[in-house]
Amino acid sequence: MLFSYFSNVIAPVMVVLDDDANGYRSLILPMAFEDEVLCRAVMVVAAQHLSRRRPEFQKPAEAGRTAVISRLRNDSVQHSADKVLSECTWATLIVLLVGETVTGSPDYGLLIRMLLSLSTCTPVRDANPVLSKFLQAQTQMFELLGVPLLGETAGVLTLQKASESLTGWLSYPYIPEESEDWRLTESIRQCFLLACDIYKQCAECPEENPNLDESLQARSIQQLIDVVSQITPEARGAHALVWVCFIAGAASIDPTHRTYFVHRMEQVYARTHFGNIPGSIQSVQNIWAREEGERWTVCVPRVANVLVM
């Protein structure tokens, strides 16, 4: 039951367009049948989401998550590098991070750092090329969306790479050009690049005058709204815009803009019921209430303790 739930409810939310190429379904689940730790991680994440309607799943899910993380730590000490630096470990960390978005847990930072460290290891990168490409794309997704929330300096460095190497998970090269899905994915990609620019514009403002580029920010935010508005809340892929709305909402001063982005996030939550979305909305409201004169990109690690995506 939990594998089916993961396939039908969790996997579609973790990609922009859900189709037969969804690696959470076509790659992760078959691996989970063969690996005990990954299997448990998949079941934990399914139970975490299911516990919203079935509270009896909550405690077993929490215990299972703790057990999986403990097992990964023990394996890193007791086993050889080829066992620790494996495709299954890589996939398990990604699935655990999916769970952080399901629950809205504040403990995602350690998992992201573990994931980024593992993904650079040669034994993992030299694995099955199809699987490795999928795992690398998902790692890039978590890097792009997660690192800017953990600190401004690392966030800027990460987003400077966004247009080059970190947005591959938004690409669907097999979709025919000029098709409806192609135009949709291009619009979503543009939204992410605009949101990256908004973050960098704020982070690069001088501390002595953090509001220097308010007019530039306002134009960028309006440009982003114009693109987001072309994607209806019910459209395929619209669920992928939570991070975009969070970044632009955090940077917004205009109450109309703030309301717009919060409403878009609420519309995604109505579809996915991922717990990180209410946490994202609360976090952006915390940012609005920050001390005057402080860049919002500086205060994010302090007031936004949820993996926004």
From TrEMBL:
Respond yes or no to whether keyword Ubl conjugation is given for this record: no
Keyword annotations of the record: Nucleus
**Protein location:** Nucleus
Q: Does the keyword section mention Nucleus? A: yes
InterPro entries linked to this entry:
Fun_TF
Pfam families xrefs:
Fungal_trans_2
The cellular component terms of Gene Ontology attached to this UniProt record, alphabetical and capped at eight, are: nucleus
State the Gene Ontology terms under molecular function: DNA-binding transcription factor activity; transcription cis-regulatory region binding
Alphabetically, which GO biological process terms does the record hold?
Answer: positive regulation of transcription by RNA polymerase II
Q: State where it is primarily located.
A: nucleus
Q: Under what name is this protein listed?
A: Fungal-specific transcription factor domain-containing protein
Organism equals Zymoseptoria tritici (strain ST99CH_3D7)
